[in-house]
Amino acid sequence: MDLYEHQARELFAEHGIVVPQAEVTDSAEEAREIARGLGGRVVVKAQVKTGGRGKAGGVRLAADPAAAEAAARRILGMDIKGHTVRTVMLARPVDIAAEFYVSYVLDRAAGTFLAIASAEGGTEIEEVAADRPEAVARIPVDPTEGVTTAKAAQIAEAAGLPPRAVDVLVRLWNVLTREDAVLVEVNPLVRTPHGQIIALDGKVTLDDNARFRRERWGAQEVTHDDPLEAEAAAKGLNYVKLDGEVGVIGNGAGLVMATLDVVAACGARPADFLDIGGGASARTMADGLNVILSDPAVRSVLVNVFGGITACDTVADGIVRALDSVRLTKPLVVRLDGNNAARGRAVLDARAHPLIRQAATMDGAARQAADLALAANPL
Ligand code: GDP
Ligand code: MN
Fold it and tell me: SS3 for 8?
């Protein structure tokens, strides 16, 4: 889960990183009062979980409370890269002598963390990284050693950051590790004309499996880029959108992953990962089918269930009852095995839906589903 800038700012402050004084509101009138309290001159900043707010007009300097209200009015409701602005943060402006970039990110491929830092931070960092990669230092951080003062000094030296940034680099590492984040980024980290180092912006991505995240920020607002994933998440489904044409539903993450492999081995591509878990109620089945069938790329659906604690007849009942609320528009291949498989198959046979067919084995079911998906006209 990504945090909003104002939440990241809160975490930074708790770990002793200097941040501008600031407050959040969803009202332009209140923005005027907050600006007054902050001394009149403020920066008004859109709170959306995407970068590039400055370039999109979502960061504005206001000279006085009236200007802050006007700026908040312009920014609230604005669309920034598909994110609607619901709240703004008003911050006491900081005088900038230099802008730096610093981040720590989990490098899954390398099995380590990476410190990325540059003396040329600010809104153009992506261009800097693309045009002059040598201006951006990338230094692996061994997770068992972490960022000690010596390591931080090495990062600062490599990136050309001032010695005073060393302490911030150590504290930022503490944010990453103690708050269970997989990414922390400060852009810009600024040096003021007095030499003070201040985090002017912040991005934090928390590990969705972290207890801390659930306790402090709740289960809401896990971000989904894909609209089908967002819809599935809202229904409590374990669904991941993929690029293929065979919809896949199964019970148990391991079985579903194996199903994706078998579909691929048959020359087709899975359209999704959907684990309906142990419950497999009619509601879950209907929700799952609805999400999968609304993916225009799907040409056939494969239901692969191995009955354990969940009996196959319960799953078959779920499919049949789901048909009350779902209009089946694509062929469904069902493989039921394990606990009460015979009864489950009988339930589906009795329903005799023209678009539902059954297969005895997982390979056979995947073969049928793949052939149906790859046929010129599967219906
Ligand atoms: P982003 O565009 O979403 O990354 O938003 P930022 O919070 O990074 O703000 C964009 C740019 O606005 C920064 O790089 C700064 O140049 C400028 N900016 C933001 N806050 C201040 C401030 O307090 N003082 C000054 N002088 N510039 C600011
Ligand atoms: Mn920024």
Answer: helix
